[in-house]
Amino acid sequence: MKDIDIADLRKITELVKLKHGYDFTNYAMSSFKRRLVRILELYNLSIEALIRKLQEPSFVEEFLNEITVNVTEMFRDPSFWRVLRDDIIPGILLNHNKIRIWHAGCSSGEEVFSIAILLKEMGILHNVQIIATDLDTNILEKAKSGSYNIKSMDLNEKNYIRFQGTGSLKDYYKEVNGKAIMDESLLMDVSFRKHDLVKGDIFNKFDLILCRNVMIYFNQTLQNNVLKKFHESLFKYGYLAIGSKESLIWCDIANKFIVVNNEEKVYKKIKD
User: Which among 35, 54, 83, 191 is placed 20 to 30 Å from 63, CA to CA?
Assistant: First the structure.
């Protein structure tokens, strides 16, 4: 296994930041290092060769794809999706008949389809606007295409059953040449956008922000900055859902939220 020292890590993060505008300096270094090692092994490169290749814009997209890759699945943590359906969304509907959702760090789109299916089964998909964002344009294209390996649908179906959906996941896709092609009408009110959580601006106000299992790759400074951004992007009494291993009780804006569901990591904004 190849090794990378701190000086090389700094050299790579500075090069990517200066030349291409992507800032990884506040990523959790153990995770960032692990992914760099994977890139070196995948492309059979030395550190010096990787630094040379990072001068090529065409390679940078591949590099980003590897660094930001997130393993995801539909209805991951089924109990979370039940809480969303049974408690959170009905709570929003008490005060609004139109809902705005930001899916931050949407990766390859499995969770975007999960929320769309959930909303369709609640009969309110047409009343919801979803903005799904990610840093990686390649992964956004995959999300938009709604095309997944058919083998992955076994696990997705098991999650859906545990979520206690009203039908079968098969109702929402068709099989074509070993791929599951999702029903495109689910994306009727979804817009996909490239957005950098580290450097991107606040671009709208939302009733619900989903950002699950993204911040585990950030150090505390960056998590703090991103959580402030989420706070500003929520309407008062809007909800924030983060991953099961993530928390906001330690951060600067912790007193501006209350815990709605500690197990599922759902918070409600109570102060501007």
Answer: 191
